[in-house]
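Dear support,

I submitted the protein below through the web form. The confirmation email said the job was done, but the results page showed an empty box. After a refresh the structure appeared. I'm attaching both so you can tell me whether what I see now is the final result or a partial one.
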Amino acid sequence: MNERSDLSMANEDVLRVELEVFKREHRDLDEAIHALEEKGTADALTLRRLKKQKLLLKDKIALIEDRLLPDIIA
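What the results page shows now:
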């Protein structure tokens, strides 16, 4: 393989790792939000911040997935 292909594969591997980390963080936030809502111990501001953070992670996940699986127009 040439150097460019190796670099491309390394970048793809990094993106896949980041994707898994972001997905795990998204799941963890989702579980935390549900737990706080069920207990009723969190104030509205805390829940709003957690939900916003969860949405930001969702956007990052979508961007990485788009980079890994680009749309191919046939």
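Response: this is the final, complete result; the empty box was a page-load delay. The chain has a mean pLDDT of 88.
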